[in-house]
Amino acid sequence: MAQKKAFITGVSGQDGSYLTEQLLDKGYEVHGMIRRASSFNRGRIEHIYRWGKERNNFFLHYGDVSDSSNLNRLVEKIRPDEIYNLAAQSHVKVSFEVPEYTAEVDALGTLRLLDAIKETGLDCKFYQASTSELYGKVQEVPQSEKTPFYPRSPYGVAKLYAFWIVKNYREAYGLHASNGILFNHESPRRGENFVTRKITLGVAGVKAGARECIKLGNLNARRDWGYAPDYVNAMWLMLQKETPDDYVIATGEMHTVREFVEASFRHLDISVRWEGEGENEIGVDGNTGNTIVRVDPKYYRPSEVEQLCGDTSKAINALGWKPTVTFDQLVEIMVKADRETVKSR
Ligand code: NAP
Ligand code: G4F
Questions:
Q1: What would the mean pLDDT of 92-113 be, rounded to a whole number?
Q2: Whose CA is nearest to atom 27 of ligand 2?
């Protein structure tokens, strides 16, 4: 069988790096889009790049999903069998600061790619990185593919456009285009300003004596957190189906930010005692009495997504997918990795 070619936008991100590793393992030739930046932005894929260069199966191309001519040229030149559109301004809080840019990249970027496929007439499968942020102010618990959407941020609204334009191009032009509605997924490669990574880096810093405490926003927010490598495997499974469709990918378990903090400290033998309320709440080290967690309202969002919990039965039945890492294992993996990160800094 001929070697399959994949094109990944967002290759330098958390998911892009794991997806690249998995596709190379499956024998794919992988092409990734990278943005020109004034500082090094390939940290997550540097190891793969060196390895892939030797084997001549991993290639990077400069580009940006805000640039149609670049996308058209890349799609025409690479002629991929599968496109994974992972590129996004992916931070929800930041999207309130840069709403127009977020729409440009997360909404219109998706349209540009779909249109490039349509115009070249390429027989190519398309994966869209849709998100549980579409559910926002949730209309039912847990959320399935049938739950109505109610996004709560410029990010969520931009991704809502992307979700529907994927469906529209599928129905209007017969494109094999699927939406993966992925709930939060984390790993040691998670960006440092997302809450899980901020916590695991923070607790490792406190344990090492490199910092006094961690400052967080809404401790009561609840999320359905899974392990990123499991979730990128689901992306691939979706594109192996004969017909395109939309799937929820989640663990079905919900935990608060507060629980994530407690579990992280627990892995370092520190118990947290909570005192006070709201902005004045603090987390105290049960052994030393030191304040190791504080609330800082600057991390609150203008409109919050209070809870997310996914019903992944469709993916279990149709894709044979299921999560392999529990909440506690995820926390342990991340804390362990960040103890090393703190030592090396
Ligand atoms: P991430 O780590 O923030 O990675 C985002 C990637 O997009 C990076 O490679 C980034 O490049 C690239 N990018 C940003 N703007 C771009 C532009 N204008 N043109 C081209 N590339 C651009 O995100 P992630 O966690 O891997 O998530 C991957 C995708 O899944 C995103 O679309 C995200 O919105 C979505 N998603 C994530 C989750 C989750 O829990 N992780 C859940 C649901 C959906 P730089 O490295 O140069 O910044
Ligand atoms: O880690 P977060 O920033 O992730 P959020 O907003 O859920 O978005 C992530 O998951 C989405 C899938 O549902 C993706 F689509 C999106 O691209 C991204 O990957 O925040 C999680 C929760 C929020 O409720 C936030 O208010 O944690 C709360 N939080 C509390 N303190 C904090 C903090 N979030 C951050 N980033 N920083 C804090 O200090």
A1: 98
A2: 195
pLDDT tens digits along 34-71:
999 999 999 999 999 887 777 889 999 999 999 999 99
Residues 6+ away with beta carbon under 8 Å from 270: 203, 206, 207, 285, 286, 287, 292
Q: pTM of whole model > 0.85?
A: yes
**Atom nearest to 65 CA in ligand 1:** 19
| Probe residue for ligand 1, chosen from 69, 86, 178 as the CB with the greatest number of ligand atoms within 8 Å | 86
Read off the pLDDT of each residue in 136-140 and give the average, rounded to a whole number: 98
Residue in the structure block whose two tokens are 């044979």: 320
Residues that are catalytic: 131, 133, 155
Give distance in angstroms: CA of 195 to centre of ligand 2: 6
The upper half-sphere exposure of residue 103, i.e. CA atoms within 13 Å in the direction of its Cβ, equals 8
Q: How far is the CA of 109 from the centre of ligand 2 (A)?
A: 22
Report residues whose beta carbon is within 6 angstroms of any ligand 2 atom. Answer: 90, 92-93, 131-133, 183-184, 193-195, 198, 216-218, 221, 223, 257, 299, 301, 304-305, 308
Tell which atom from ligand 1 comes closest to the C-alpha of 16. Answer: 26
Query: pLDDT tens for residues 228-283?
Result: 999 999 999 999 999 999 999 999 999 999 999 999 999 999 999 999 999 999 99
Cβ-contact 91, 61 below 8 angstroms: no
Residue 222 DSSP SS3: strand
pLDDT score, position 305: 98
The answer to whether the peptide bond before residue 302 is cis (omega within 30 degrees of 0) is no
The C-alpha atoms of residue 326 and residue 280 are separated, in whole angstroms, by: 32
Q: From residue 130, how far is each of 256, 275, 330 by CA, in Å?
A: 22, 38, 22
pLDDT at res. 51? 78
pLDDT given for residue 176 in this prediction: 98
**Residue indicated by tokens 């590793």:** 21
